[in-house]
Each structure stands twice: as C-alpha cells, then as structure tokens.
Amino acid sequence: MSIQADHISKAFGTFAALNDVSLSVPDGQLVALLGPSGSGKTTLLRVIAGLEIPDSGRVSLAGRDVTDAGPGERGIGFVFQHYALFRHMTVAQNVAFGLSVKGRKERPDRATIGRKVMALLKLVQLDWAAGRFPTQLSGGQRQRVALARALAVEPQVLLLDEPFGALDAAVRQELRDWLRELHHEIHLTSVFVTHDQQEALEIADQVVVFNEGRIEQVGTPGEVYDHPASPFVYRFLGKTNVLQDQGELEYARPHDIELSLKSQTDFRPGQIRQVHLVGSEARIEVQDTGGRVLSAEMPKAQFRELDVQAGSQVYYRPRRVTRYPAR
C-alpha cells in the first residue's frame, strides 16, 4: 500500500514540529525517516498512523484519504521503541491480542488465531518462546514479539518508531539484518524512524532526511550519502572535514583523506596528532600548517605500512571534495 502525505504542518504550542512536509512512499518500500531529535520525523510517523492530527495537509493510503480516520481504520501496524508488551500475558497471548479484541464478525475462531500466532512466531524465530512471559526474554526478543503482534492483524502498512533504540549495539546490528531480510520476504510497505545514520543507510530502500520540521533530501542510501543536497545532510550522514569555509564550502570524508610520507602534487603538509586503532580501522588526526585538525581513516594494515605515529610529519590530500556555495 502506498503512502502519500501532502503539505503536512503540525505545531505543539509555539513549536512547529512539521512545516509543509510532503512525502510519497511507494508500495512495498522500506523507508527510513532520519534526523536529529526534534526534527519532525516521529511526528510525521504519528500523523501517518492517525495518532496525531495535522493542523493542515492530507494523508492518503493507496489513494484513499484517511486524514480524518482513526488509527483503527487505517490498516496500520505500529511498533513502539519500548515494545509496549503486556507483562501479564504470555508471548503467544501478546501476539494474539489484536486478533482476540476484534468484533465478533471479524474475529477468527480460537484455533485459527492459534495457528496464525504460531506461524508469526516462527517467522520471527520465537516459536519456542510461545509460553514464556516478556520478562523472560531479552530486549531483542521482545522487540521481535512486538513486531509479530503488529503483523498479526495483517496491516497494509507497518510503522516503526525507533524500533532498535533501546537495544545495545550488537543486538541492534543483528535486528537490522533480520528486519531487512524479513522485509524482503513479506514486501510490506514499511516506514521506520531512526536517528542512527548507519541504521538508515544499511536497511532502507529510501532515506528521508529531516531538519527543523522540513525534509532536506529524499533518496536512496547511495544518493543521500554520495550526493548530499545540503551541508546539513553532508554533516549529518557521517564524519566531516571542513577544508574551506570562505567563499565556497568544501568538505571531505575521513576515508577520502589520503596520507603520504613524501611531498607530491596536490598534497599538503601536516603532522599527526593522535592515532586511534579501532577494530580493523585506524583513525588518525592530522594538523595542517594553519592549525586545522583533520580526521583520516584507513584500514589498520594500510596504516601500519605507513609506519608513522603521533608527531610524524606527513602529507595529505582529499581524494574527493564536496562543494557548496557559502551562505
């Protein structure tokens, strides 16, 4: 099911959470709403879900105007950051909840519900935990139960609000990979909110970058990272070196900074200030002759071949520079 938000504005008191935001989500896509806290991404998600009413603008699902429809009329599944599972219910009962509270004419019989619940728990790899309670599961497992519960009512759109934000880094990575594979399997139109750049770039088909209640850029992960539409997008999507801030603005990513022990064409002199070895990567701080400190990154093996350390004289150049007009 496609999603269309047209000219959405929403304020809370004097704070403009959304300012004339329009967004199209094609059927079957997995879309990330990415931005810093307070940028409007969660407000838009809640407007799509019917949990917030926009001050102006319209929301359509598959071409049907649902702006004035309640959450239960939109055919949407919603997964919250902190699971919102019922602690007194088993895993199976939690997943079955949305089906069991349907009206008599729509509610499946108990046997059908049971079969569906077990099929969903198998899908999220938790069929073995059907009789357990949420407190007996890890955070990552509870998040998968919450996702199974959202899928149980057969939503046509799945919305996820910071679904992995409460989990540690290793579990987040595991669930990112799992959600991407699950989406490939079920092809359900899905929109998730995150402030984690890597998460958005790894999982999403399309990334929507928010800033101060507006959309700065919409594109594939490759488009927004390699061709950022504004200095804000460039800075928000990764580490940044400012090479020039007079006239044109010039930026380069740390992995685009090349180091050499010899003076060569286009290379500039500098001195290594610090070196941090993190996993398989070397992160190097280089101070140029004007006192500017730049960050460079390279594989640890390549750094060892340079045979340098803090205090060493080096030469550097950016392999790739992104330029913007100065404001």
Keywords:
327 residues, alpha+beta, six-stranded mixed sheet
Write the layout of secondary structure elements.
Blueprint: E1 3-12, E2 15-25, E3 30-34, H1 41-49, E4 56-61, E5 64-65, E6 76-79, H2 91-100, H3 110-123, H4 139-152, E7 157-161, H5 169-186, E8 189-194, H6 197-203, E9 206-211, E10 214-219, H7 221-226, H8 231-236, E11 241-244, E12 249-252, E13 257-260, E14 268-278, E15 281-288, E16 293-299, H9 300-306, E17 313-318, E18 322-324
Parallel strand pairs: 3-8, 3-9, 6-7, 7-8
Antiparallel strand pairs: 1-2, 1-4, 4-5, 9-10, 11-12, 12-18, 13-17, 14-15, 14-17, 15-16
Question: Care to describe what's here?
Answer:
The protein has 327 residues and is of the alpha+beta class. It has helices at 41-49, 91-100, 110-123, 139-152, 169-186, 197-203, 221-226, 231-236, 300-306; strands at 3-12, 15-25, 30-34, 56-61, 64-65, 76-79, 157-161, 189-194, 206-211, 214-219, 241-244, 249-252, 257-260, 268-278, 281-288, 293-299, 313-318, 322-324. A six-stranded mixed sheet has the order 6-7-8-3-9-10, sandwiched between helices. Strands 13-17-14-15-16 form a five-stranded antiparallel sheet. Helix 2 crosses helix 3 and helix 3 packs across helix 4 (139-152). The mean pLDDT is 91.
